[in-house]
Amino acid sequence: MTKLAIIYYSSTGTVHEMARRIAATAEAHDDVEVRLRHVAETAPDEAVNSQDAWQKHRADVIDEPIASPDDLDWADVALFGSPTRYGHVTSQLQGYIDTLGPLWAQGKLADKVYAGFTASQTHHGGQESTLLSLYTSFYHFGGIVVAPGYTDPLKFNDGNPYGAAKVTGASTELDENDLAALDHLVNRALAISRRLEAGGNGASRDDA
Ligand SMILES: Cc1cc2nc3c(=O)[nH]c(=O)nc-3n(C[C@H](O)[C@H](O)[C@H](O)COP(=O)(O)O)c2cc1C
């Protein structure tokens, strides 16, 4: 079995829907176990309650499991999701990343497959810088970043070779291109992980 952790933050539900799509696509594989985990909300209640959509989403996910470092330790493949905040990762997801020091120190974050997904309100609103910020941490982990690149013609439709990304300006609903990009992101990450497990192309986790 390949173990996939989807670790994400969402204020108003877009990245949550992206994460759920990734989970559903992965669960369709017989050989994949999935942990879908949102990270803890760290914004003050005053901020959350100042926006109806934020307040509602928080209530929607209140009973869903919160990511712990163990979820990442467990995983072979980790897909991280965060909305763009001024071109950067949210403090909530960064807060989770900042709890990973003990695992990092033991080398336990290394040799996993990583990739990211994001959402922003606008085109050119910081999706690429958000993903690249995430990937900086993955490099520090010793992770294997499996960017989608343009490895499938569908990537010419969503146009983001760094990960999967939704522009919410026109509509927060995931459209055909968004769904295809998310499916491609997770299927490619799983395929590369399987190759590593099998020692394909001369490289395996045991060699590391
Ligand atoms: C504090 C803050 C900063 C944001 N910064 C940006 C930004 O730099 N560029 C952008 O296009 N959207 C920005 N947004 C919009 C969100 O990234 C966007 O609405 C995202 O889709 C929300 O995802 P969610 O529904 O999963 O919370 C910002 C939103 C907030 C609240």
From TrEMBL:
InterPro entries according to UniProt: Flavodoxin/NO_synth, Flavoprotein-like_sf, FMN_Rdtase-like_dom
TM regions (residue ranges): none
Superkingdom of source: Bacteria
Single Gene Ontology MF annotation: NAD(P)H dehydrogenase (quinone) activity
EC number annotated for this UniProt entry: 1.6.5.2
Pfam families from the UniProt entry: FMN_red
Every Flavodoxin-like domain range: 4-186
Alphabetic keyword roster: Oxidoreductase
Protein name, per record: NAD(P)H:quinone oxidoreductase
Species the sequence originates in: Nocardioides imazamoxiresistens
